[in-house]
Amino acid sequence: MSGTLFATVKEELQSVHQMIKEQLTIKAGHLGNYAHLEFAPPDPVIRPALVILVARFYRCFSPRVLSLGAIIQFIFMASQIHSRIPEGPEPGIEPQDPRDGTQFPVLVGDYLYGKFFTSLCDANLVTYLRPLTEIIALIHEGGILHKRNLLAITENPELFNEIVRLENAELMAGAAKLAADLAGASQWEQACLQDFGLALGMVYGLTRRGIYDQRVIKYSETALKALEKLPERPEKALLEKLLRVSGSADQSSIRMVV
Name one GO biological process term (predicted). Predict the structure, then answer.
């Protein structure tokens, strides 16, 4: 199923991947030498695929869609790098690998946030600066909640859900809404796709954390109800497949197609 899903947007995903790849080498070398850039198989593809599929729903094939996919991925990568940074090195001990320290990963994360902003300018998408920076703030708010409540989140489902929403779902919601806006969708349809993206992000975020209970079923149903409001087009079925793959226990089946 995932093979068919991503084969549909293979060329676009390759273009997004290339855009990102071109920004990962600087004068000091590849950024992977200074921060861990390894991500699980779903993460390099799922957010750009969401942007592309939503835009395709409205027959939008603009290069700006690919730029938006890369921008969303830059935000994800930067936030992940920052979230992995340890509290601090042990006194008197310097990590042998700079990727395991604090200073270099902070700089790489900040660099990628800078690339998110310059990519907005290059693609003439500066109008999306405010909503995207608000999402970045929400992601880091979730990170603060997470770090402050490490021992309590498994015992507090409401807090757990809130952290997943902030750290995972808001970026997917924004990706779907902005892609719909870029493609010329109505305000009502943008709201439907934002609801879909938020529920998709909850499903993905919960299952990535090993949760497969009634919450996943609830958010899957919410996402499907949002999709039901939209016209019947081939991309609608693909978005539904994206949802089902995101809620699968075997997310390793979602692989990059570049």
Answer: isoprenoid biosynthetic process
